[in-house]
Amino acid sequence: MVTIKDIARHVGVSPSVVSRALNNKYGVKESTRQMIVQTAKEMGYHPNAAARTLVTRRTMTIGVIMADISEPFYSGIIKGLEFVASESGYTLLFSNSYESLEQSRVVQRMIDAQRVDGMIIVGSNVKEKAYISSLVDKGTPFVVIERSYRDPRMNCIWVDNVMGGYIATKHLIDCGHTRIAHITGTLDVEVAADRLKGYRKALDEAGIAFSPNLVVQGTFVWQTGYSAMKTLLETRPLCTAVFVANDSMAFGALQAIAEAGLSVPHDISVVGFDDLQFSSLTNPPLTTVRQPRYEMGRDAARLLVSRLNHPEQGDGTKICHPPELIVRKSTTVCRDSDQPEAIVTQQRQ
Amino acid sequence: MVTIKDIARHVGVSPSVVSRALNNKYGVKESTRQMIVQTAKEMGYHPNAAARTLVTRRTMTIGVIMADISEPFYSGIIKGLEFVASESGYTLLFSNSYESLEQSRVVQRMIDAQRVDGMIIVGSNVKEKAYISSLVDKGTPFVVIERSYRDPRMNCIWVDNVMGGYIATKHLIDCGHTRIAHITGTLDVEVAADRLKGYRKALDEAGIAFSPNLVVQGTFVWQTGYSAMKTLLETRPLCTAVFVANDSMAFGALQAIAEAGLSVPHDISVVGFDDLQFSSLTNPPLTTVRQPRYEMGRDAARLLVSRLNHPEQGDGTKICHPPELIVRKSTTVCRDSDQPEAIVTQQRQ
DNA sequence: TTGAAAGCGCTACCAC
DNA sequence: GTGGTAGCGCTTTCAA
Lengths: 349, 349
Fold this sequence. Notes:
2 copies of one chain form a homodimer. Chain A is an alpha/beta fold.
C-alpha cells in the first residue's frame, strides 16, 4: 500500500507537503505540487479513509434510514440523494429500519461509532419521534423527509399531503362524482391523517356531506387496499369513485373491483397517491398524485451537506413541496351521479 | 466523546487493559473486566470505528454493488445479505452501478480507500468482466451473484437459468402449446442467453421445431416487452403462448395483449421469470419462474464473511441454485393447438 | 495479570 | 514554501 510517506521520500519532500499538495491547500510551490500529484498517480496512491477520518473527525459519509430501501416508493428519493452526494464527495450509507427496533440498533451504531457525519431519515413512524428527539439532543445533524415536525431544531422536507388529498378528491368531484369513498393509510401516521383531511376539505368545499361509512382504513399495503375495497363494494349506496391513500393499496382496490366484475373507470373511478413506477402500467393506468421524490431527496441531501459544511447556519429549515395530480385512465366523468337506479345497473354480472 | 483512556483513568488501569477487556481477550482478571465493562457502559463509551480500522486494517464493512438498488428484483437478495451481515457484525455499503462507468468510480473509491473488506457484486454486465478480473488481481475478496464465471479464483452464486428457461417452456408444452414464442433479454448477457438455451432445449425435447420468427429480443425492461409482444402479435401463425425472459417485460407483454383485445390466458398464455413482488398482482396473476433470491443473498454474504475470516480457505466456490416454477393464472391449456382457423377467431374486435 | 510504548496513515500546527 | 512533530483512538507487542 502506498502512503503519503512513500511519496514524500520519492519526491524528496516531507509528508506534510505531500498532504497539503494533495489536498490543494495553500503554501505549496506550484512546481512541487505538480511533481507530487504526478508521483502520487504513478505510484497508485489512494488516501486511507480511516486515517483521514481519525484526524479530521469527518467521515464524508451520510447515513440514510428508510423503512425498506427496496420499496419502489423510495427509488426517486434515493436517486436525488445520490446525485447530491456524488456531487459533493459524500458516500451514502443505507440502512433499513423495518421495525423501529432494528432501526435504533443499526443507526445508533453508525452514529455512536462515528461512522457518519449526519443522517437523513425517510418517513419515520410516529413511535420513533422520541428517537429523533434523542438525535437532536446529541447534536447529530440530520434531515427528516416526509415528516413536518414543528420542533425548530429539526430540518424537515415533506410534501403537502393535505393538498394532495384535496386535489385527488377535487378531481373526482370535478368529474361529477359525489359518492366518493376513501381508503386511508395507517391513521396515526401524519401522512395518512393529512390525506384524509384533504379529502374532507374537498368534500366540504363542494358541499358534499362526509359519510363515515365511505371511509375505510388500510395500512398502506396492497392487501389492505384489496380488502378495504371489498368492504366498500358491499356498502350501499355504492360509491362511484374512490380515493386511495397510496398506489400500493390502489392496486389492491383495482384488483377487488375487477374481481367484482365492475369496470374502472366506468363503474368506479380510482385515484391513488405516490405515482410509483408501476402505476402507469396497471390496467387501466392509474390516475394518481405524484410526490416530487427526486427533488425531495435532492433537497434533503443539499440541506444536510450545507449544514455539515456550515454548522453555524443552524437547523430548523422546513421545506414543503407541492404534490401534482397525474391524470391517467382510471378516472372519468360520473355517468349517473344523480340516478339511484344506475347503481343497480352497475352491478352487472 | 468518551475514549478508552477516559475509562482507564476512571477505573485506574491502563488503556491496554481496557482494550483487552472490552474485546474479550485473554489476560484480564475477571473482576477488573467486569469493572471496566460496567464503567464503559456507564460512561457511554463507543469504540471509534476509524481508529480501530486504522490499526486492525479491517473495516467490518462489505461493499455491495448492483445496477439499481431500488429495483424490486434485488429486494430479496438485499434481505438475505442483511440477515447475514447483521448476524456477523458487518455493515453493508450499497452502491448503484447503473452504467458500468459509474460503478467503477464509486466502487473503486471504496476499495482504494480501504473502506470495505470485501465486495459483493450482483449481476454485472458483460462489459465489466475486465473490471472484475482487476479485483482478482488486486486480491480484493469478492463474491459475484447472478454470474457463473469459470475463473477458479472467483466465487460465484447463480441460478440455473438454462433450467429456468427449460421449465418455463416445458410448462407451456405440457399445457399443449406448440407455437410458443420467446421474448429474450439482452442476449450478450449470460442470463438471457441461458434462458434462451433452456427454451430451445425444451422445444427440442418435445420435437417442436424452433422458429426464429417466434423469438424477439428485448432488453429486460417493460417497454421492450411491450413492443416485442406487439411484434409477435403480428406474426402469423399467431403464437398461443409466450415465455418472457423476465417479469418486467412480461408486464409489458400482458399490456400489449390486452390492448390487442386478446385475453390471457385463454388466447395467449404467458410465463415470466423472476417472480417480483408485483407479479402476483397483475391481471391475471403471472405464472413465472422464481429465483431463490433471499437464499442467494444469504449464501453470498456467508461465503464472503467466511472468506474474510479465513483467508486461507481460498476462492473459487461455485453455488448454483435451482429455479422454481410458480404457476398462477396467466397460463392454461391450449384450446386449439392444431386448428389454424382458431387464429382468426382470436383477433376479435 | 498489567502497563508502557510504538505505531496504524493522516492532518495541522508551528517553527524555520 | 517547507519540514518537524504531535496526536487523532485504538490495538498490540513486549517487558514487568
